[in-house]
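Hi all, long-time lurker, first post. I run a small reading group and we've been trying to get comfortable going from sequence to structure in the token notation. Rather than ask abstract questions, I figured I'd post a concrete chain and ask someone more experienced to write out its structure so we can walk through it together at our next meeting. Sequence below, copied exactly:
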Amino acid sequence: MIRRDGTHEIEIQRSRFLCHVARVASDQEASEFFARVRKEHWQATHNCTAFRTAGTQRSSDDGEPAGTAGVPMLEVLTRRDLVDVAVVVTRYYGGIKLGAGGLVRAYGRAVSEAIDSVGTLTRERHETVLLAVDHDQAGKLENALRAAGHHVADAEYGRDVTFTVLTKDPDGFEVWLAAQTGGAVTAIRGEPVDLDVPG
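-- Answer (accepted) --
Happy to help. Here is the structure in token form:
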């Protein structure tokens, strides 16, 4: 998954290649994104597209020679194992022909550099751990959790303070917690969740 939407431009032999990248959750969202970019860049020579979601992947050369634009764009997404992402490379022709090999390299490079510029996220499975502590202990424990780099997803203040912590190593976390609190706080395990972290 990409970290954010964005646009990145490169120039090759006087042709401008603008790569627009966006998160999408469905074919419909990808189609709407493509339509917005085409409307904005209607004067461009080509608006070539590619997208991947969990169930579908598709690409279009939009008038470039078959297999020279959409396919290499899609290959970048596949090689980087990115899903729920759509890309449009808008080309403004600069008057110099690039040839089939040159087009493949240009479109692939435009997507690759755009993804580098927006960054990627990796989806990792985390365990949910709930901790209930007295109000007078809560501040000290929260500071210790954050200082140790544990992901505090939520803090709920009721009769007690309940922290929701996400961890990839629940056993190791429980050992840390016991040492930190002298065994006074019990960890209750909840449902696993997927968390997107910088890749």
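A couple of things your group might point at:
The helical segments are 27-40, 70-79, 99-118, 135-147, 170-181.
The chain has two domains: 6-119, 122-198.
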